[in-house]
Structure formats: C-alpha cells, structure tokens
Specification:
391 residues, alpha/beta, Chorismate Mutase Domain, subunit A, Alpha-Beta Plaits, D-Maltodextrin-Binding Protein, domain 2, 7-stranded mixed β-sheet, 5-stranded mixed β-sheet, 14 helices, 16 strands, elongated
Length: 391
C-alpha cells in the first residue's frame, strides 16, 4: 500500500474508534447514574486494576505498554465524566465552599485603589531600596511597610496578623525560582492574592572614590549574583562573591563598611539611599530581567479577574502518580503553566509538587478540578489562592 492508502485505512479505523468511544462514554454515564442512585464512589480502584490487567493480557507484547497508557487515560476521562454527573460543579466540596465564599465576599477592587481603612501594612524582606519594596509600592501605592530580615519573617508577620499582606519573590526569568521561598510555601499557611512582575535593573555600587580595579569582594543576594554572572565573570573573575540576605541590605552593608575594596549589587535607588557611587549600570544578563513577586495574605481574597491559581499536591514516588494528576488538567482543558517539585525531608522520597494553572476562577471546569483533586488526595492537596498577575 502507498501512503494515501494507509491513511485511508487509518481514517476508517478512527471513524470506528470515535463511535465506539462515544458508546463507551454513554455507558460510563449509565454507570454514574447507578452510582448516584446507590451512593457509590466514583473511583473503583479494584475494578480499574483488574480491567487494566485484562486489557493488557489481550494485547500484543509489542503494544502492551501503549495499550495500558491509552486505557489509563480513558479511565481518567471516565472518572471526570462520572464526577460531573454525581457532583454537578463542586457542590458540597469544602475547599470549593471556601473559594466560593471568598469570591462572594472579597471587595471588588484591590486595596491599591479601594482601601476604606487606610493604607495596608505590608511586610517586606530587607530595607528601603529593596526590590520587594518596589513591588509593594507598585501594588499598593506607597503603603506602610514593615521590614523584616528574612523571607520566613514575612510569612510569620502575615500568619500572626502583624501585617495585612506580605511580598515575597517567587522566581526570576533568568535565575529561576527562589528556592527558599518555595520551601517556606510548603511549610507555612498563607494565601496568594496577587502576583506582580517587576523589571530588575542591577547596578554595581561602592563607596565614593572606589575604583573598579580596587574591588576584591562583591556582596548581594544569591539571585542577583546569578542574574549578573556574565558581568562578574568578565569584569571581576578573581573577586570573592558573597551571598547576602537582600540586595538593599548588601548596599547598606557596603555604605557602613568603610572599605574601598567592597561593592554591592543592587538597584540604582540604593545608591541615592545609602550614599554610594554607581560604578556600572544594567549589569544583569538580560535587559528583560524580571522578578515575579507574590502578595500573600492570611485570609483568602479573590478579586475580580483572577485567572491564575496556585496549588500544592503531595504525591508518592510511584510510577504514574504525577501522570494521573496531569491527565486531569488535560481532561478539563486547563493550562498548566508551572510545575515545581520539592522533596519532603520527613518522608521516604515523597514529593510535594507546586502547580500553577491558567484558568478563570469562575470556570465550571476549574470547580470540577478542585473537587476531583480534593476527593482524590484529601489532606495531600492544598489550595494556595486564585489571583491576577500585573506588571
């Protein structure tokens, strides 16, 4: 047979598959109706395992793996359909009840434009001139800022009610995720209410009179050092690079050091704030260097326009465990835009996965996904918040 003849046969087989798949889904709906009438759960794991074994035994050894893969996906689709029949949208799902309440009772405007109780108090790590302060100013219009020394202290200030909101860096488009923040996200209780992307322009700062050839040590946050790696390697191949808690704190340290061999990487604003000289500007690897910050709160707030959601799932280190979750996103047509894995130290190689999805919070598919994940994973599922992202 030539190619056209082979494709014609494939088209015939596909026509049969479509009809048979539709027939199977109609039968699945009948199963769901029976389960609803008899108060049975969607998942019958014993039946699925036996069915997979039976199907695999009927296939050729060459295609057995593909057959199992196909039917695992069909089973996921079937469970999704049954779940929608048994539980329209997400009625009765405790997590969705919390989400629905937040949608209903959150003010219609973000506090930057509609604060009736005065300017919100915002926790930021570092000091004046920090990029987190810049993010807070963009979000809230120069709020009262409560500076703390560590990212953990930002979470604690929000958790204890010392501040209404906290600002933490999540990731940079050249240096990647801020690992310490993601580690804290696995430990702390909080909600994400907004995300913002801030353009980062790094400068090399030193005491007045310092010359570039005098510099022996450069201090800054590890992310800033990574973002300026090419410049540092070219201009200061022998300089000591020291990670500091914050770019603005590093600039403050240089200003108080009295050392002519020391420089910091920070924002140009830090030069004015701490009386430093800017030896080089825009030293980051990319001109489009941006850091993404999360605005966190103790209370769940979902503002109009929320089209991103962050989730955390604890999954066992077993074949197919991640695939089964990912297939649910696909079945609902929900776009997954970030996946970050974190090992759980207290377990035997279990992993916590941080997901970020792109879908409106008002979508019925999103509501069904929340229900399914909640039912399947129980306490191993955490909803972190739905929010809009601004620039």
């Amino acid at each position: 047979m030539d190619l056209n003849e082979i494709r014609a046969h494939i088209d015939d087989v596909d026509d049969q598959l479509v009809k048979l798949f539709e027939e199977r889904m109609h039968l699945t709906a009948d199963v769901a109706a029976y389960k609803k009438e008899n108060n049975l759960p969607v998942l019958d794991e014993e039946r699925e395992r036996a069915k997979l074994t039976d199907i695999a035994s009927k296939s050729s050894e060459e295609l057995r793996g593909y057959i199992r893969m196909l039917y695992e996906y069909i089973f996921n689709i079937s469970r999704t359909q049954q779940s929608q029949i048994l539980h329209p949208a997400s009625a009765g799902c405790p997590i969705w009840d919390v989400i629905a309440d937040a949608i209903e009772n959150t003010p219609k405007l973000f506090p930057a434009r509609a604060s009736v109780q005065g300017k919100p108090r915002v926790a930021c790590q570092g000091t004046w001139g920090a990029y987190s302060q810049h993010a807070a100013d963009k979000l809230f219009g120069k709020p009262e800022i409560f500076f703390v020394s560590t990212f953990e202290s930002v979470f604690n200030a929000v958790e204890k009610g010392l501040c209404d909101y906290g600002i933490v860096p999540a990731e940079n488009n050249t240096a990647g995720s801020v690992r310490r923040v993601y580690d804290l996200m696995t430990e702390k209780r909080f909600r994400i209410v907004r995300a913002i992307r801030v353009k980062i322009d790094h400068a090399l700062l030193a005491l007045p009179g310092t010359k570039k050839e005098d510099i022996r040590e450069i201090v800054s946050h590890e992310q800033a050092l990574a973002q300026c790696a090419e410049f540092l390697q070219k201009e200061f191949p022998n300089a000591k690079l020291t990670a500091y808690e914050n770019t603005a704190k590093a600039a403050e340290y240089v200003s108080k050091s009295g050392r002519a061999d020391l420089a910091a990487i920070g924002s140009p604003d830090c030069a004015k704030l701490f009386g430093l000289t800017c030896l080089s500007e825009n030293i980051q690897v990319s001109d489009n260097n941006r850091t993404r910050f999360f605005c966190i709160s103790k209370k769940l707030e979902i503002y109009p326009g929320a089209d991103r959601t962050s989730l955390m799932l604890r999954l066992p280190n077993e074949p197919g465990s991640l695939y089964h979750v990912l297939s649910r996103f696909n079945a609902h047509g929900i776009n997954l835009i970030k996946l970050e894995s974190r090992p759980i130290p207290t377990t035997d190689f279990a992993f916590l996965f941080c997901f970020e999805v792109e879908t409106t919070v008002y979508s019925e598919d999103f509501a069904c996904l929340i229900r399914e994940l909640s039912e399947d994973l129980g306490d191993d599922f955490r909803y972190l918040g739905s929010y809009a992202e601004v620039q």
